[in-house]
Amino acid sequence: MHPLIIFAASNVSYVLLLGTLGMLVLAVGLVAFIVFHQRKVIKYQQQLQVMEEQQQQILLNASIRWQEEERQRIAADLHDDAGPLLATARLYLNDNLVHQDISTQLQSINNAKNIIDDTIQLIRNISHSLMPPTLKNFGLESAVNDLFQKISGSGAINANCRFHDYRERLQPQKELLLFRVTQELVNNVLKHSNASFIHITQNINEGNFYIRFHHDGKGINQEDFEKMNKSSIGLGLKNIQSRIKVLDGQIKFEKDNSQTFFKVTIEIPLQKAANA
Amino acid sequence: MLLFQRNKTILVGVLFFYCSYSILSDLFINKLSLKFFESEFYAYRLFTVIEFLCFSFIIYKSLSSIRLRKILIFSSLFFFLSIIIDLLTNSIENFDSLPTGVESILILFYCILTLYEQISTGKPLYSFPVLFAFSLILFFAGTFFLFIMSQNNFENEEFSNLYDYIVAISKILMTLLMSVGILASRKTETQNNRTFQKT
Question: What pTM does this model have?
Answer without folding.
Answer: 0.59
